[in-house]
Amino acid sequence: MKSLNRSIILNKVRTDGPISRATIAKETKLTPPTVSNLVSELIVSGLVIESEQGESIGGRKPTLLVINNTRFHIIGLDVGTKSIRAVLVNLSGTVLGEKETPIPLAITKDSLLKLIKQTITSLAHTHEDKEIIGIGVGMHGVVDVESGVSLFAPGLNLRDTPIKEFLEAELDLHVIIDNDVRAMAFGEYWFENGKNVDNMVTINIGHGVGAGIVLNGRLFYGDHDLAGEIGHMTVDLNGRLCSCGNHGCWETLISGPAIGRTALSYLEAGAKTMLGKKPLDGQAVYNAALQGDEVAKQVLEITGQYIGIGLTNLIHLLNPTKIIIGGGVSGASRFIMPKIRETIAERGLTKQAKETEIYCSEQGAFGTARGAAALVLGEIFEGDFPVKEM
Ligand SMILES: [Zn+2]
């Protein structure tokens, strides 16, 4: 059921619970009878429960309200290039179960769909007592959000995979699908780091580079879901060839493979380093830096500088309150972060721009899966979830 006041109250319980009806009325400026009626509805629907008694300021102790974490559950999935990660969460997003299924090489469309379904059912079976009401999917590559079709998954070399249609028919559950970066970004917004911040950007730096943009508390898609493809912003006219066919994309300077290529150019120029030619990727450079290799440290610092330049552009374009960095490269935080902050402090136009908060994600390996679950939570708490009795 869609009602603005109902959503306001539900979200108040989510962010501020345990909370009394009187405090909700006071802080939302809704009348006590309105709050009382809508809270009764929320209790009947199973979204909110009465918890312990609060402190009295004279008279009867007020009953406090909290989100009902035992009634409904969501499964979130992160469909990557090598594995499917899944989490089962309650309405507060607490992870109650995890599962990871490897994806075999050269998988077909049908086999991938079956594997996704198996991952969901296997996680649901180990938590048989939990009622699942929705599935969120973060899919790598290009996704048509409306139809729930994975248009192109480059890492699996698959096109036009009808994930939403298949899962809804097979499991009889509501399914939301989005690309993995936007799922990750929404998770950051919905959970810890982005709390109470309405404008923020999460940038994923791994094999590729992409951003999930939250503006005014909502994911921003652009006209054709293309918003956030910031890895292909040109930063060097004569730079390296990118997978997209252009030269000098940001991605060619800061991705995991790009870090390997930068290190290789040092190696070929005769730099004294413990780095060998193979395998030379971001992880190898990070490992060498940890062992004190000066060239490896320098490569990561230069990478941090380029990340800082791109983020400064992003700050000037969107002026977000926070930028959160996720993906494999964020693991090298201790070597790249000082340069990122220094570069932004040098180049930002205003004091506020220079001081934009930059963090590395703390969500861990299952963060995108949890973010995908948050996409469903967002619908439930905004009253957009298509179940009549909710
Ligand atoms: Zn490119």
Description:
The chain is an alpha/beta fold. It has three domains: 4-67, Arc Repressor Mutant, subunit A (Orthogonal Bundle), CATH 1.10.10.10; 72-187 and 367-382, Nucleotidyltransferase, domain 5 (2-Layer Sandwich); 194-360, ATPase, nucleotide binding domain (Nucleotidyltransferase, domain 5, 2-Layer Sandwich), CATH 3.30.420. It has 13 helices and 16 strands. A hairpin with a 4-residue loop joins strand 5 (83-90) and strand 6. Helix 9 packs across helix 10 (294-318). The structure holds zinc ion. The site of zinc ion (ZN) has 6 residues, from loops. Residues 232, 242, 244, 246, 249, 251 line the site of zinc ion.
What structural category arises from helix and sheet content? alpha/beta
Morphology call? globular
What fraction strand? 15-25%
For this structure, the CATH topology of the largest domain is: Nucleotidyltransferase, domain 5
- Distance linking N and C termini: 6 Å
Level-1 CATH class name of the largest domain: Alpha Beta
Beta-strand segment tally: 16
Instruction: Provide the CATH architecture of the largest domain.
Output: 2-Layer Sandwich
Number of helices: 13
- pLDDT averaged residue by residue: 92
Helix fraction? Answer: 40-55%
Lateral strand order in the biggest sheet? 6-5-4-7-11
User: Using only CA atoms, what is the Rg?
Assistant: 23 Å
Q: Give the CATH H-level superfamily of the largest domain.
A: ATPase, nucleotide binding domain
Short description:
With 390 residues, the protein is an alpha/beta fold. It has helices at 4-16, 21-28, 32-45, 109-125, 163-171, 180-190, 251-254, 256-268, 282-290, 294-318, 333-347, 351-354, 367-382, and strands at 19-20, 48-53, 63-67, 72-79, 83-90, 95-102, 131-139, 142-144, 149-153, 158-161, 174-179, 200-205, 209-215, 218-219, 322-326, 357-360. The longest helix is centred in the last third of the chain and has 25 residues, at 294-318.
